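Anyone up for a design puzzle?
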C-alpha cells in the first residue's frame, strides 16, 4: 500500500500518537525528497521544501494527518573512551566529525583514518552497533556544513 506524501515535519515533543515508524541511519535522516518505507512495509514519499536534518523522535506528517515516527537505526560506530575525553573530543571536533557526546564515551561513525588518529593519541576504541544521534551544530539546530579556513 502507498501512503500519502509527507511535506511537513513535527519536531520531538510537538506531536503525540504515531500511525507507524520509519527507521533511518544518521546519513539517511538528512533529506529533502525520498521514497521511504515504514516498519509495516508501507511506502510513501517525503517531499520537503528544503533539505532537512531529521532527529530521532521527530514525526513525518502525511497529507492526511497521520504521523510517522522517525527512529534512529542501528549502525556501525566507534565507541571512544579514554582518560582525557575532553582532549579526544577536541581532536574529533577539529576534524568536523559528527560526534555523539555522552558522559563517559563518544560515538562516531566508523572511519579507519579517524580510528588511526584516535589510537595514536591514546584513546580506547571499540566497534559497536547502535543508534547514532550526534550533537547538532553550535550555530543552529541540526547539521552544519563545512566552512573555509
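Challenge accepted. My sequence:
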Amino acid at each position: 500500500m502507498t501512503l500519502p506524501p509527507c511535506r511537513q515535519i513535527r519536531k520531538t515533543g510537538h506531536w503525540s500518537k504515531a500511525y507507524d515508524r520509519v527507521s533511518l541511519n544518521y546519513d539517511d535522516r538528512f533529506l529533502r525528497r525520498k521514497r521511504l518505507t515504514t516498519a509495516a512495509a508501507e511506502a510513501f514519499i517525503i517531499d520537503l521544501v528544503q533539505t532537512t536534518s531529521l532527529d530521532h523522535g521527530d514525526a513525518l506528517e502525511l497529507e492526511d494527518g497521520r504521523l510517522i515516527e522517525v527512529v534512529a537505526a542501528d549502525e556501525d560506530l566507534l565507541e571512544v573512551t579514554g582518560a582525557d575525553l575532553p582532549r579526544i573530543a577536541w581532536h574529533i571536533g577539529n576534524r568536523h566529525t559528527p560526534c555523539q557526546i555522552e558522559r563517559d564515551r563518544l560515538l562516531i561513525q566508523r572511519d579507519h583514518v579517524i580510528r588511526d588518529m584516535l589510537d595514536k593519541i591514546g584513546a580506547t576504541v571499540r566497534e559497536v552497533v547502535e543508534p547514532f544521534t550526534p550533537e547538532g551544530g553550535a550555530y543552529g539546530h541540526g547539521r552544519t556544513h563545512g566552512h573555509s579556513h
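A detail worth pointing out: The chain has two domains: 6-72, 75-131.
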